[in-house]
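Hey, I'm writing a tutorial for new members on how sequence and structure tokens pair up, and I'd like a real worked example in the thread rather than a made-up one. If someone can provide the structure for the chain below, I'll link this post from the tutorial.
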Amino acid sequence: MTVTAAAAPTASTAATTAGIPELVLLCALMLAALVVPGLLIGLALTRRPGLSAAASAPATVGVLGFFGWAFGGLGVPVNLMSLTLSWVFVLALALPLGVIATQRRRERERADAERGGEYDPRRPGALGAGHARGGRGAHALRRDVGKRGARHAGGNPGATPWAWAQALLSAGTVAALVVWAGTDVARRIMDAGDRGLRSIPQGWDMHWHASLVHWVHETGVISPTRTGELRYAEDAKEVYYPTGWHVACDYAGEVAYRITGREWDTVEVLNLFMGVSMAVAAAGAAAALVWIGAGFLLRRSGNFPLDLASVATRWAATTLAAASALLLPAWQIIFFDGSWPAGFGIGLAGIAVAVAAAAAVTVDARWAASALAALAVLGAVQTHASAATVVGAGLAFWLIQQLVKPALGATRLGALWHLVLTAVLTAVPFIPQFLVGLGNVDEVTGYDQQLVDDRADSLSQALMMETKFWDMYGDDTVWYALIIAGLVGLAVLAFTGGTWLTALWTLGFGGTVYCLMPFDNWLGTALEMFTAFHYNASHRVVLICAMAVSAGVGALIAALGAALQLWAARARRGGREQIDDAPVADAETDLAVGGVDDMDRTDAGRTDLDRTDADRADGDRTAGDVESARPGGSHAVGRGTVTGAAAQDPETGVMPVVDAAPAVIEPAGRDAGDDAEEAAGRGGWVQAAQAAAVVGAAALVMTTQLPAVASAEDHGLQLMTASADRQGRVISKADLRAFDFLREQVDASPEPFSILSAPEEGMGWGYIIDDLPMVFSHYLNDRQTDPLDTTQLVFHADLINGDPLNPMDEAACRLGVRYIIASPPMFWPNLEPYGSFVNLANAPGLTLVHEERGAEPIDDVFVYEVDSWDPRYCRSVR
């Protein structure tokens, strides 16, 4: 019997709504679920707020992804409770490790204090040549420098009030930008689609990602080595597909929906999390990279330990970098493409590179920081295979820089050793997954694309990030200013210790040029080895450039702040003279290059209450207490302010990867008590002026330039979100009504059965929307040459004749196929429809049970029942 469906609304076509406050709350809760576990684990290990905040998202994904795989092997259901217990378990392991690290740090500090009578780190030559070699003297120097801004707060470099203020302010602003971006995307989807927040993303990859999220929610399985069970219903072929993004999506959705009491819907969760996750990747990577880069710039100004101006500068740099990343079309294009795990993985890889680099040259408890870095790297590589190439390339460039010019206080061997430690800690939990993943390398590397035919076009388009889907943005070019500013910022970083980041941009640029138009020579072969893991897709590789460029935008504001601080420092010191040729400290030179501030920077924001008794005693010394002659110079090192590039960042503990900056030394004989009150007051005003100038400049750029960029991109964003179900490229309202019809048949049948479709028609969405037992939950029939029943049926379903002994009827019975749904045309216009599906109406063994025709072919949908299906013999593979 043929049933023609009415156009009345059904359960699937009904829309759900959410106001802006509720969208903000849902996005904020998802973000919290994504970052809080990693943040707590990082704080437990390192006690450093900035480093922990930077590593929070990839560390969370690392933990959730690993336990998602482990639970799959152990048969433990993956759900909100089990995933929460997993990161709580890791936190419980991290707490004692952090305590051990803290205790060892305090023991070293006490040992130094006990040696106080015979050891004075401010005495020229006290460290000797050991400093240059990173020996005992260098270790003492690093701890002495750290004491200046940190030890008074309990011996923990991450516990200073300024460090917490800087980290919380910057992280909070980036989080606000992420929530805003996620809310904006969700609002646009609601406006563009017919199902409100449940509007279906009408893309290619989105189909498979949604199936994986629904799979973990419904079955409690999300192991990347078991995804074949979902993808290949017939034989559950073992494949490896990274599922870090999907398990994070399910977990974040569970947290948000449980807290708000909203009924779970896979498509709703997908629409919310895809915006939040892409914003985390874009803004988080830029913020983490510029956090390190800004530290280099600020240390060159000598304005460390932290003070008001440094906090303002790093906040402004981080905020502008994150905002620029969110506005660059490259990240929006990857969002529209539906390659969410790839984009998310590359963003997490950028964060992991920054965290691992910082951990390798941190001051104390480097092994604990390396463990946190390993979690961050694990999170990136469990999200997408391409992330591993970004992590490897980024850290390789950084290590090369370290080998050429190691950070002061660190050694070449030490940096290499701690990178190896990070790699080992990452590899141990990841190797079992990696071994399975080796079998799927050809699936990723077998793609080849070319978008332009002129080499000049490939170069210019790669420089301006004009890749796939660029034409959606029309002729608006106002965001070119962001790209140019970022490139200038990268040049600044290249001359101030961030050469490795410029090198990473260069790799991304070269890879994008190659993907736009391949070239056949040794360079093309080398680039192919890298771009192949990105499907040789220019819009994926260019994300590396986008990360670096947005970090460069932040570097410009950091450079401005550093210049202001250096100018202000010179103005405050008045008659003090500058020594520009200060070498690396050794037994024959002043300690000026060590960056020690003997006055504890009371003129930079510290009050007398912040100083320890030892500090006050040091401050009461006279210029004659310490004397040393500088060979070839006329200045004596007296009691006074000595600044330089060697000062560590008291929040991250990172020593700069730069040459020693000019040191400023107070001339011998100057009384430090002269005009002290006036100097302190003037210093406070200068600090406030510096902070105000930096914040004002950042606010000016944000309010004048960024809105113009956002307006220029509005058309592109509308096109992206217009791919919701109102357009119906994959799923139409007629399809939704057919899904509801099939759901009724499933509910009415006492025996399970499965439903066959042409995978490229997208009917696998029935599994996601109505939990239908679809044979194909993937969008692609990629095993057309394998001797499978699924392959035979897709190509010969019209040969089903109702005879249980007919080969096609037997194949349908073995799969448990009771219904076949057809909804032409294919997703891609260049794909010819399966001839068997075109001829289903003439199959003698099929009965049309549901039909709906529309004005356009895209609105046609047909459901056929297999006459030979027998519940006594036919068992569903779903």
